[in-house]
Design a protein that fits this description.
410 residues, alpha/beta, Rossmann fold, 2 domains, 7-stranded parallel beta sheet, 6-stranded parallel beta sheet, 18 helices, 38% helix
């Protein structure tokens, strides 16, 4: 079976997920990854090639078309990246067996264009939380029946990892995006509120954060409690230094699998999160972690865990066992094999993706910003700092000088 994966790139969670999946797929599955832009980070691309996959950079949409002609199944690694929307709208695809694996939740902006769910032969979410995404209210029952969930976040394999030390004084850590686009600014308030003395919380992800994050850290009553440790190439080793994983995210964050959270749980760290949909889909409150309804409640939970060794140990064991049983590449590989084998028995179909998302960069951007029947409002504070994850600034940086985007700015 020949699977063509079309993806903007193989960085971050998408590359990590596929590198792990490749090792769990049977050797008769031939995979080609067509990247729509040159990779900045080749770690996962190289790992895929070592595992037998082919990775190419598409120099034209005609090249993508030729690859699609040869594939049994074409899988789009979906998120709201400008290059992917350009490919969907402008590539002259042949009739094909199409799968979309969505790496954004769709619960809020960026929304998943309902037309893409209709046009895809199978549309796959990465989290059960996405079953509640509002786009599904705008598609047919038949299209909803073609959706599925395949997890993309995996825990660490315990073999060969450093043992998590039992310490008399437990430690709290954060690892992930150190930016208020995703990280909740109340993180610093919660650490400030803790009752204990001599508290140090390593924050992995940025060595010298700037702007709002740096200002919020400096404004703490106890700024010495936060230690920015920078990015790490060995997250398992970094997390082995902690007992509690404090991971509060913004209410409107777009994440799904939350790799950092799942990895921390696989090592037996006790997670404390806010009650967002993606996190609730991962954690069983009180059993495999704790879900707070507010930053104040999160601080109280942290205080409770700091003084309760038996509670920490009970939840840590349950957490590690739960992730080992449910969040593995083997399970997701099996899920994809079942999905692909079911699809291979069907005839290829033509997909009108331009009808689903529009014909211009402005229409592509807007397709993710509001749902049918609602109006679009220009974004505020869409600065150069946010030229990622499909912001208007990101589209403008890719399609420089595009007239349709200029009209959005007024």
């Amino acid at each position: 079976m020949n699977i063509l994966h079309i993806t903007p790139h193989l960085g971050g969670g998408v590359g990590k997920a596929h590198a792990a999946l490749r090792s769990a797929l049977p050797p008769e599955i031939e995979q080609t990854f067509a990247l729509l832009e040159a990779p900045r980070d080749r770690r996962y691309a190289d790992a895929l090639m070592r595992g037998g996959a082919r990775v190419v950079v598409a120099d034209s949409l005609d090249y993508v078309m030729r690859l699609a002609h040869k594939a049994d199944i074409v899988q789009f690694e979906y998120w709201n990246h400008p290059r992917l929307f350009e490919c969907l709208a402008r590539c002259p695809f042949p009739p094909m067996r199409s799968v979309f694996w969505s790496h954004v939740s769709g619960l809020g902006k960026p929304f998943i264009p309902p037309g893409l769910i209709e046009q895809a032969m199978r549309f796959v979410f990465t989290s059960d939380a996405s079953r509640a995404n509002p786009s599904l209210a705008h598609v047919s029952e038949e299209a909803r029946a073609r959706t599925a969930v395949v997890n993309s976040g995996f825990g660490f394999d315990a073999a060969g990892l450093p043992l998590r030390m039992r310490r008399a004084k437990p430690a709290i850590a954060y690892l992930g995006t150190v930016d208020f686009v995703k990280m909740h600014p109340g993180f610093f308030d919660a650490i400030d509120r803790l009752a204990g003395a001599d508290i140090r919380v390593p924050v992995w992800g940025a060595l010298e954060p700037s702007g709002e994050v740096a200002a919020r850290a400096r404004a703490m009553h106890h700024p010495e409690r936060i230690v920015f440790r920078g990015q790490t190439a060995e997250p398992a080793r970094a997390l082995s230094e902690a007992d509690i994983f404090f991971y509060p995210l913004q209410r409107d964050h777009y994440g799904t699998a939350e790799n950092a959270l799942i990895e921390a749980m696989s090592l037996g760290l006790v997670p404390v999160v806010l009650d967002n949909a993606a996190e609730r889909a991962i954690i069983r409150d009180g059993e495999t972690g704790f879900v707070a309804r507010s930053i104040e409640e999160a601080a109280s939970l942290l205080d409770m865990l700091l003084v309760s060794p038996p509670l920490r140990e009970r939840v840590a064991r349950a957490t590690a066992a739960h992730i080992a049983a449910t969040r593995t590449p083997k399970q997701s590989a099996q899920d994809f094999m079942i999905l692909w084998l079911g699809l291979i028995a069907k005839s290829p179909q033509a997909g009108d993706f331009a009808r689903a998302i529009g014909a211009s960069p402005a229409e592509w951007y807007q397709a993710t910003q509001h749902l049918p029947g609602t109006s679009w409002q220009p974004p505020r504070n869409d600065t150069a700092r946010q030229r990622s994850k499909g912001t208007l600034a990101h589209f403008e940086s890719v399609f420089t000088g595009d007239a349709s985007l200029a009209r959005l700015r007024g």
